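Anyone able to model this chain together with S-adenosylmethionine?
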Amino acid sequence: MTGYDLVMAPLEKLYLARIRRALMPQAFGRVLEIGFGNGANMAYFDHSKIKSLDALDIKENMRAFSDVTYHVLSAEELPFEDASFDTVVLTLTLCSVPDQLKAIREIRRVLKDDGVYLFIEHEKPRGSLTGGLVELVNPLWRRLASGCQLNLETHKKIESQGFKLSRQRRGVFHYGVAKKIDEQEG
Ligand SMILES: C[S@@+](CC[C@H](N)C(=O)[O-])C[C@H]1O[C@@H](n2cnc3c(N)ncnc32)[C@H](O)[C@@H]1O
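re: yes, here you go
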């Protein structure tokens, strides 16, 4: 078990399982999950609403499930046509992606106009004391946790790339549904 797993295991029980249970049944149609890892969301999808599932991760050792198509790639360059997916899922992943904005633009490109982007991301805590502490430990954490950063405000970056967010927050976790804003509207 890595240091990251040790920190995340209690948070999974306290917060994340409940958030996944609320959010993941909204996935439908052609689904792309980026940062699939061990497939933590699989137990929470309503598989009767899913036509196909593509799993993408920078690491090869993704957990294997039947009826999933796997891609070992980084989130910034997706090998899919424009408007290919009804749902894109990223949970606890953008924090480790080196070029977040490029990845978000790619998510928007491959998502259909009426599609949904389901997200869970941890962000910098609000308080000045905890926020300051996070800035202090972030360089070490980043090295220990495969590039994961604790001091980001990822939802603002998602919004900045042409998405309207229906967002909730529990502790440091921001989660919800992002929908594409019509280019003329935005
Ligand atoms: C903290 S884990 C989260 C796994 C899972 N999504 C969850 O909710 O528990 C982050 C995952 O994102 C993957 N990842 C990190 N950087 C990535 C990138 N640039 N492109 C695609 N996946 C990446 C990691 O390999 C890892 O599987």
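The domain at 3-180 is CATH 3.40.50.150 (Rossmann fold).
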